[in-house]
Amino acid sequence: MDPLSLERLDDPLAPAREATAEMLNNRHPNFSLPQPFYNDERLFRIDVQEIFEKEWLFAGLTCEIPAKGNFMTLEVGNNPIVIVRGNNGEVHAFHNVCRHRGSRLCVHDKGKVAKLVCPYHQWTYELDGRLLFAGTDMGSDFDLSQYGLKPVNVRTGGGYIFISLAEQPQDIDELLESLDHYLDLCDMDNAKVAAESNIVEDANWKLVIENNRECYHCNGAHPELLNSLQEFDDSEDPRATPAYRALVERKQNEWQTMGVPWELKRIGRRNRLTRTPLLNGTVSMTMDGKQASRKLLGRLPSPDLGVLRILHLPNSWNHFMGDHAVVFRVLPIGPQKTLVTTKWVVHKDAVEGVDYDPEQMRRVWDATNDQDRRLAEENQRGINSTAYQPGPYSETFEFGVIDFVKWYSERMLDNLGGAPRLSL
Ligand code: 3BY
Ligand code: FES
Ligand code: FE
């Protein structure tokens, strides 16, 4: 049997991989994707293997693991991951899988430990992943050094933690440098999470991202958010009116004088960073547009800084205002199930009940998230119909969606091509 057909036997997904590449190569660039991309089990597994197990993912914030022994866990497809602060302040990421018989090691979302101890038979690992102790019964020639935790690539910038499960991840330096630059004054190492929400949406992860990449739906869906958000995506938005452009120019001059970064920066299609004005007279994404925390983030000089928007494909978008930030993370659970995590972040010295009320701070995005959840779920239900066929995106209103789907298609085709098990 030639190696090609052996590969096919070994990999039950091989025909689906070929079909995926073919559909992407033949897709209409400005149309939504064919149905299987949104609801097929095999396509979902390919998404996890080729996107979520290969691309850099936003995992969490450095301020969530402030001291040595602080850890957080997450799941990338079927891969439990633990991120832990080491003895010298360094950030480690590991597969959260014991090297004894494979039990999940850390079972809590967050916590603090002196060592990583497996709950099953108490194999004990140093915070840097070395196996320190494996009971007394492993035999005299047992070599602890062969059973350290498996590392996961991890990089940090501007207080953001990114992980990649790839053997050879792509370069991410430009993003990390940009985050250091744009978030310098936010001092995210000295921030804290004031509130968190975790929503499981009955929709494919791409529908969650597509929905986020346009504000075509904002007028009809988001009354609370539109108390402060301008529906223009950035200063290059094709819909921008002369009045909006004038406001942008006036605000950019103010930000320039204050030394606050505002430039529009793109890194390929994967990342975009830009500061845009909020509605005139508002400074924060709250019900009344006023600041939600009396204490500003980091060393920011003013509450009135519009909103710094940071996009990281495939799984994060972010809004930084003068007083607080809202950070979003998307993780796929199943073909039609997605975890959306939202964190509201304030200065670490801001005092709950004195400087901010978390209930008041989270109101706008709790409402917005719920509205977006419904939209994504209804989109999913319609797409599941035999009547669904890819439909056209508007170039003026949905350019962000076009960009996302282009990024996805390019990365998918590239990663499929590089995968050893592919028989294209
Ligand atoms: O700013 C956001 O997070 C996006 C833009 C449009 C819809 N959504 C609220
Ligand atoms: Fe972890 Fe046995 S599986 S100690
Ligand atoms: Fe929305």
Any descriptors?
424 residues, alpha+beta, Rieske Iron-sulfur Protein, Naphthalene 1,2-dioxygenase Alpha Subunit, Chain A, domain 1, 2 domains, seven-stranded antiparallel sheet, four-stranded antiparallel sheet, globular, binds 1-methyl-L-proline, binds FE2/S2 (inorganic) cluster, binds fe (iii) ion, metal-binding, iron-sulfur, 2Fe-2S, Rng_hydr_dOase-A
Give me the secondary-structure topology.
Layout: H1 3-10, H2 14-26, H3 36-39, H4 41-52, E1 57-61, E2 70-76, E3 79-85, E4 91-95, E5 110-112, E6 116-117, E7 124-125, E8 131-133, E9 153-157, E10 160-164, H5 173-183, E11 191-201, H6 205-212, H7 218-221, H8 242-258, E12 265-267, E13 271-276, E14 307-312, E15 316-320, E16 325-334, E17 337-347, H9 358-383, H10 399-418
Antiparallel strand pairs: 1-10, 2-3, 2-5, 3-4, 6-7, 7-8, 9-10, 11-17, 12-13, 13-14, 14-15, 15-16, 16-17
Helix pairs in contact: 2-10, 6-9, 6-10
Bound molecules: 1-methyl-L-proline, FE2/S2 (inorganic) cluster and fe (iii) ion (FE).
**CATH homologous superfamily title of the largest domain:** Naphthalene 1,2-dioxygenase Alpha Subunit, Chain A, domain 1
Structural class: alpha+beta
CATH architecture title of the largest domain: Alpha-Beta Complex
| SSE pattern | HHHHEEEEEEEEEEHEHHHEEEEEEHH
**CATH C-level category of the largest domain:** Alpha Beta
Radius of gyration: 23 Å
Heteromolecules bound: 1-methyl-L-proline, FE2/S2 (inorganic) cluster, fe (iii) ion
Outline the low-pLDDT stretches. Answer: 419-424
What's the helical proportion of residues? 25-40%
End-to-end C-alpha gap? 18 Å
Mean pLDDT: 95
Q: What spatial order of strands do you see in the largest sheet?
A: 11-17-16-15-14-13-12
Annotation field: number of helices = 10
Q: What fold name goes in the CATH topology slot of the largest domain?
A: Naphthalene 1,2-dioxygenase Alpha Subunit, Chain A, domain 1
- Taken together, the total number of domains comes to 2
The 3D shape can be described as: globular
